[in-house]
Amino acid sequence: MINNKQLVKYCFAALGSPYWYGCFGQKSNKTLYYNKRKQYPQQYEWNLQKTQLNRRVFDCVGLIKGAIWSNADFNKAPKYKASEDVSANGMLSRCKTKGKIKNLPEIAGVLVFKNGHVGVYIGDGYVIEAKGHNYGVIKSKLSATSWTDWAYCPFIQYISKEKPKENTTKNKYYPKCATKYNSIVDALDSIHVNSRYSYRKKIAVANGIKNYRGSNQQNIDMLNMLKAGKLKRP
Fold it and tell me: 144: which of 72, 126, 194, 195 lies 20 to 30 Å off by Cα?
């Protein structure tokens, strides 16, 4: 069984791969294309290009199944397992530990869902997803898609995150952001830190900002600390 860190590593290796509906990391070829086109005609209303041949191809849940069925080895052909062959919605229904996206834990490898679609949260407010034929496998901001739920994949093991060394200045504070930013959300995004309100509340507590409500003055105070390199990590 692979773990969440291996899943994330596999997803990074898959970035730029083509999206082929119904696929889970097979090497693309003409036979696979025409078989899938016959099976899912509405999903294959596009012509095969040479640039998409001999590459690993995925749909959204296929990206996750590809990692599991290849033991997280991107260069290894996945071995199909019927008991784990689920749709995106089917994956969510199989998950035992899950919740609404507003309560997403800051753990890389957690799955994120909306109806009919799934991605892999990689931390710091970003997701890797097989988005569709016009996009392929991409890295995107969590906030760019209307995700509704999160869940621990039932087919992988989740290992705890390594905790930073709290006695070092480097790990105690976030790195400085550029002085050009006037928004704490944009500033946090620029250094790849989760900028969602729920996480900003945690940052506020760590920095002595009481009763954080996202007010203009509270955000300015937080932004000024970040620009000075004095914004503490929660």
Answer: 72
SS (HEC) of 46-85 = CCCCHHHCCCEEECHHHHHHHHHHCCCCCCCCCCCCHHHC
- Strand 98-100 to 111-114 pairing: unpaired
DSSP state of 157: B
Nearest to 25 by CA among 153, 151, 137, 152: 137
What pairs with residue 98 in β-bridges?
151
Distance CA 182, CA 145 (A): 24
Q: Which residues are bridge partners to 118 per DSSP?
A: 113
pLDDT digits (tens, 9 = 90+) for 30-42: 999 999 999 999 9
Specify the pLDDT at position 168: 45
Are 226 and 177 a contacting pair, CB within 8 Å? yes
Q: Kindly provide the residue ranges of all beta strands, DSSP E only, lying in 85-224, ordered along the sequence.
A: 98-100, 111-114, 117-123, 126-132, 136-141, 149-151
Q: At what angle do helices 60-69 and 4-14 cross, to 10 degrees?
A: 120
Is residue 202 a contact partner of residue 212, using CB atoms and an 8 Å limit?
A: no
Task: Say which amino acid occupies 224.
Answer: N
